Amino acid sequence: MTLIKLLTIATLASIIPGQLLRFSFSSVSAFNLTDIFASITVVSFYANAFLTKSLIFPKYTVAAWLFSLSAISSTILALNFFTLPEIANAFLFLVRFIIYFSFAIVSANTISKSQIENWIDYLIIIGLVFSILGFVQLLVYPNLSSLEIYGWDPHVSRLVSSFLDPNFTGGILIIFFALATTRFLFSKQNKYLLCAIIFATAGTLTFSRSTYLGMATATVVIGALRSPKLLLAGAVFSVLTFLFIGQVRQRVIGALSVDETAQARIESWQKAIVTYSKNPLFGVGFNTYRYYQRDIGYFDVSNPDGGHSGAGSDSSILLVAATTGTVGLVFYLSLIAASIASSLKNSKTNSLKLATTASFCGLLVHSQFVNSLFFPQITIVLWFLLGLSSRQE
pTM of the full predicted structure? Predict the structure, then answer.
């Protein structure tokens, strides 16, 4: 178990380099350091469990396996429309989902109750390093236009840290914010309050509207279940940033007036809904959405593969519906519901459970505007926390 814990630490620490260490093996496929460490950790864990014949599966695991089976079925059916190499590539993404979800099982089986607080602190430290890296990036490299030739969006004057995308960066900051805030509310130690303020500030500087909504949702959940005063503090923080930071004001007003970015997001939703309506039972196949959009002509001729975001939709739920149909959507929503139900139990009196509940709720909102529920470095932390919270049931 010591080796597995060390590998788990390495996997979580790989969040810090994020997408900076990204290795492409085709024009549309790539893997990162988190994929490598997560795979080694999970394989080692299951090998050890096979030898010791000792393994605990939390209740929500059933929903995860059912969703995986439905995703496998939809992808096999997609053989009628896509080539074998394309289907093989699609299966790799499904394998990634299984590996990342397995981190819930890893943490539920390897980390004792007495060690949980140390692991939470470790995650908060990772979040601090990640945030500081973002502040440094915003100061010395605020313009990402030079990365556009590599498939990244040309974000300017936005905190992106090592994810190179403000929306996904904001997604993981929601988790770090929830962890630090709940730790402060339960321990009353000011160091956690400082961490929460740092994460909230970093999230603000992403200028990501989905992050604002996700962090607000997490704040409401924590405030409603533990501290109503937090709701007032969150409201004051939001008003002050709106009044005194022009770019925040511009982004919020842009959403209300449906600016170019908002319009692009609406079009992404419409495409996913149309795809689902045409393939309502099993969808077009898990992780075949890039090929479907290419074949139907959704991509611009100057970007025939859709770039880094071509495989997804600006809504994780709509992406699941489009690629796995009603069958997969039902099982996936069951997984989300079971996960929130598991973390919600005793969340009023348990810091980790409250943080996990707030993170899930915040990211559920966040993921309706960006595909954050399938972003590697976000999901690895989310499932890890879920498994960790299972130890306290």
Answer: 0.95
